[in-house]
Amino acid sequence: MIRILVATDAWHPQVNGVVHTLSEVARVAEPLGATLSFLTSEGLPTVPVPSYPSVRIALPFRRIVVQRILAMRPDAIHVATEGPIGHMVRGYCLRNGLAFTTSFHTRFAEYLSARLPIPERWTWTWLRRFHNAGAGVMAATPALTVELASRGFRNVMLWPRGVDAELFRPRPGVDLGLPGPIFLTVGRLAVEKNVEAFLSLTLPGTKVVVGDGPARAVLERRFPDAVFLGAMKGEALARVFAAADVFVFPSLTDTFGLVLLEALASGVPVAAFSVPGPRDVIGEAAVGALDRDLGAACLEALTLSRAAARSFALDMTWERSARSFISNATRFALLPAAARAKVDA
């Protein structure tokens, strides 16, 4: 059994794509011959992130991090995030001559520039330096791998995402008791998610928002006709997906968007801006409407086949995603004998 250590600053109880992806890959990895162990902020002092009180970042001590790495006795090391824990494990590997891989999940350059007067090129320079210290960097879509390579990232590898098609499935008869058609969006309510662009549209029926975040109170005041259901997960979330007529994805910067696959697996066509994230997921398939005009995309998506949406998503399994992750991590990050001796010591 291959042991892969995953260092991540994003972990439960956070609710985001990074946590969900890592959890699902770990769940299906063992039958494929790999065990994922997570080095997270658990047991470490943390501080809250400004404007994100539910999210806390760790203040890792080198001694504790090293002890945890030694206790896990990994065959491979993967650094999933660029936060304090990611930096600490990256530094440990560099000091000890150990190979490791990384993954690119978040467009920090765009996110930071939306909040602070920080030029995007500065953040891209920092990200490139962080990831190029590893043996390879994983990205979720073909277009993102091309973009990262064009920005000077080395050894970019594809790591596709998946969906639980048993949980997220069509559910005939499910009804939210709201005037239709139902236009649904799901995600964190923060400025970078561009939810305002969706809520500002003039559409028939009802706009439904699932999720929480720092922008929720402002959005609820500005758009009283929308229905805000708060954060949801599991069966309750799956039922809301299945009750929608169109899933609206207003983000301009997400690298993937797992909610796109959850909507499609539920038999719900997608409406989104024609930008890399949704374009990479949907491509030319007639399961989503991508347009510079989000309102036009929403109305077009109403005409698309729910059966086609479901069929499209069935190929996107977490087993496929896990196989790709394990292959990438072990291709570059299996520790050579000399390096393994240092870890075992």
Give the structure's gist in a few sentences:
The chain is α/β, with parallel strands linked by helices. The protein is built from 15 helices and 14 strands. It has a 6-stranded parallel beta sheet, sandwiched between helices. It has a 6-stranded parallel beta sheet with strand order 11-10-9-12-13-14, with helices on both faces. Strands 3-4 form a two-stranded antiparallel ribbon.
What's the helix and strand layout?
Blueprint: E1 2-7, H1 17-29, E2 34-39, E3 46-49, E4 52-58, H2 62-72, E5 76-79, H3 84-96, E6 101-103, H4 108-115, H5 120-132, E7 136-139, H6 142-150, E8 156-158, E9 182-186, H7 195-199, E10 206-210, H8 216-222, E11 227-230, H9 234-243, E12 246-249, H10 258-265, E13 270-272, H11 276-282, E14 288-290, H12 294-301, H13 306-313, H14 318-333, H15 337-344
Parallel strand pairs: 1-2, 1-5, 5-6, 6-7, 7-8, 9-10, 9-12, 10-11, 12-13, 13-14
Antiparallel strand pairs: 3-4
